[in-house]
Amino acid sequence: MTAHSALGLADAIATRLADPDTMPRSSRTLSSDRQHLAYGPPGIALLHIELAANGLGPWQRAHDWLAAASRQPLTSGPDSHPFYGVPAFAHALSCAADHLPGSYQRVLDALDRQIAVDVRRRLDTAHRRIDAGRLTQLAEFDTIRGLTGYGAYLLRRAPGSSTMRAVLDYCVRLTEPITHRGETLPGWWAETGPSGNLDDRFPGGHANTGMAHGIGGVLALLALAVRKGSLTDGHHAALRTILAWLDCWKEKSGGGPVWPYWVTQGELRSGRLGSSVPSRPSWCYGTAGLARAQQLAALALDDADRQIDAENALVAALTDPEQLKATTDNGLCHGFAGFAHAAASTADDAHPSTAGRLRAAIPALAAAVTPPGTDPDRMATALIQDEDGGPGLLDGAAGIALALLAPSTAAPPRSAWDACLLTA
After folding, report:
1. 81 vs 255: CA distance, rounded Å
2. Rounded distance, CA 353 to CA 346, Å?
3. 343/291 Cα distance (integer angstroms)
């Protein structure tokens, strides 16, 4: 897939998603998911914001999708999270405001005040939980629903604020061991399965490594905070604690190092993984996200050897037929477009010895989304109508278009649309 065809697909998707009023009335995009960044209008708005910021589309489309998301009151408080309600809308709105000086500021200020209140409430609950010696829930800290995701937003909007510092303090505390029923566990050990519910397959819970729901997201947030000059006590030690954990559970596959999606209680006690490591190298779980997080951490710690190791791990994953064979979709979260975005983001910060190989992997990943000769208009229609993906950001057409834009233009995103993923 050439850069021209990638831009053609992005344009075709954007054209079909130009007007929220032309979406089918039955579409969950404008009903149950109206406030959802992953599936609804806020995520689709991000596509139009990025295109407009690049001079490739009109700002009116972005405004129309933002308006569609906010036609009814937005959810805040305990029922909201970084990908739903006020924080999700605020992320999209702030991406537009960055390029439209003076626009949306009054609304954004009000949203920021509400987010600060909600974050403080969540922090108080989390610290009381730690003080009581109870295990965490994934939704307390993860990128999608928890404090790490809130931290990603605050790092853009208020990097020097006391609320941002408090989130970083919490992240540092999360890396400290916790003793539960006489057993010493990582501080991020969840008492549930990866679904967030109690699960007979995970007696005693698990330690999640992923970017979406695990300690990989915390690692990326702490590393990006160093880049922004937002530091707290124990910051670098926390980075090293997470890296040491990932080093402990790293395994070698045919194509290079891989990490488990999670570690169970039985595996923790034995010190060995009990089953083969899942091999799909996704953003949400696996090497695409974890390699980028470890690269960012290495840059924060000025550790060139670790940086190169992380970048080589990503090159290996994205060129290994066995790992790619496990990939079954095109989406941003765990598909080929997401791999291309991870490669491009990582290459932007890569060591000279690895940057070229990361960029060289991108054309084949993009071609997996749209093989040569594919009609972009038909492809766009098929992606939007796909029952599993749909038009949205995380699994659907808008996310695929966004993920292919930066690799096709050989430049980082103009907007901060991917800040919610903690990849930049």
Report:
1. 37
2. 13
3. 10
